[in-house]
Design brief:
Elements lengths: L3 E5 L5 H15 L4 E5 L3 H7 L5 H9 L2 E4 L12 H8 L4 E7 L11 E7 L1 H4 L1 E7 L2 E7 L2 H17 L4 E5 L6 H15 L5 E5 L1 H10 L6 E4 L1 H14 L7 E5 L4 E5 L15 H13 L3 H16 L13 H18 L1
Parallel strand pairs: 1-2, 1-3, 3-12, 5-10, 8-9, 8-10
Antiparallel strand pairs: 4-5, 4-11, 6-7, 11-12
Helix pairs in contact: 1-10, 1-12, 6-7, 8-9, 10-11, 11-12
């Protein structure tokens, strides 16, 4: 079955890194049908909408979406990425974190991090008054169940042995009880080793021994801490793959580049290209996933990287190098 992917370049550094990822996508999966759409400030300038109707129609027709970042600036519209996550019921945020090479990051780290997306998993109601702000959260059992059911599938696909639930929402004990009971329900009859720990213990364990957790599921209130820590352990932001996953579709993007990270990191296409690899894995093409990851690691090992990690290549040349290595591996089989 031919897969159909919508590619939107987005704003800022998006076109450079997404074009690089698209080059690799065409190499590793030449049968994939690619269509293009507009999103963000670029779309607004051309159509008057940050999320044109044509783009939403393409989202509905495609199996997956590969997008660059959206920079709204002064545009008075909801962020279109948030709209897509809500409309397409992309309820899980997915990230992989591992060592790319000997000279970047912490050795021994190899973990999958899963957490709910706010847009599809949590309804928040706020009421302002002269005395302050009243906030009310609604957590649906159906959404929580979907997240844990999907996490079992992902852990099995990734051949993981351990699942670690990280959550300590002391402000909402009833939500905490619901999440923990649902977690144990879904993993009770599996062969995974299960841990259920607080955020501070999880952060300590990862810092002390990066190999101590191979699959982490976080509640929303713990996710920010855990994403920040594993990002630091791999050597900084903008290097790892990211996806927002639902039952039928998924959105793949480069990870956010933090303000104080290496100069030029935003023009490093590693994250976007690795996200293409995760797309292949979710399409059921594990060999393509391994080809992408292997080629990226070879490029780093040889020092054929972008300037932010000590190399001299731009995004386009880096993608060409990755594609060349992939083709060499394919032709050698």
């Amino acid at each position: 079955m031919t897969q159909k992917v919508l590619v939107t370049y987005g704003d800022g550094y998006g076109p450079a890194v997404i074009r690089a990822a698209e080059t690799v996508l065409k190499t590793v999966s030449p049968g994939t049908e690619i269509v293009h759409g507009k999103i963000g400030a670029d779309a607004y300038e051309n159509t008057g909408y940050a999320l044109p109707a044509e783009t939403m129609e393409a989202v509905a027709e495609c199996d997956a979406m590969l997008s660059g970042p959206v920079i709204m600036g002064d545009i008075a519209e909801r962020n279109p990425i948030s709209t897509i996550k809500k409309q397409m019921e992309l309820y899980m945020e997915y990230g992989e974190f591992y060592t790319l090479c000997d000279y970047i990051g912490t050795k021994g780290l190899d973990t999958v991090l899963l957490s709910p997306t706010i847009e599809s998993s949590l309804n928040v109601f706020e009421t302002e008054s002269l005395d302050g702000v009243a906030s009310e959260y609604f957590t649906g059992i159906d959404n929580i169940s979907k997240i844990f059911a999907k996490s079992v599938q992902i852990a099995e696909k990734k051949r993981r042995t351990e699942i670690c639930m990280v959550s300590d929402n002391v402000l909402y004990p009833a939500r905490e009880k619901l999440i923990r009971s649902t977690f144990h329900k879904y993993y009770a009859d599996t062969e995974f080793e299960v841990r259920d720990i607080s955020t501070k213990i999880a952060m300590f364990d990862l810092a002390h021994d990066p190999s101590s957790m191979n699959t982490i599921i976080c509640d929303i209130h713990s996710a920010t801490c855990m994403w920040g820590e594993v990002t630091g352990l791999v050597g900084g932001s903008g290097l790892m793959p990211k996806a927002y996953i639902g039952d039928r579709k998924a959105l793949y993007m480069p990870t956010e580049v933090y303000p104080h990270d290496a100069v030029g990191r935003e023009l490093n296409p590693t994250s976007a290209i690795l996200s293409v690899g995760v797309m292949m894995l979710n399409f059921g093409n594990e060999s393509a996933y391994n080809l992408v990851l292997g080629a990226i690691r070879d490029m780093y090992r040889m020092g054929r990287t972008t300037p932010d990690v000590g190399g001299k290549l731009n995004a386009e040349k880096f993608a060409e190098g990755v594609s060349s290595l992939i083709l060499s591996e394919i032709n050698s089989d």
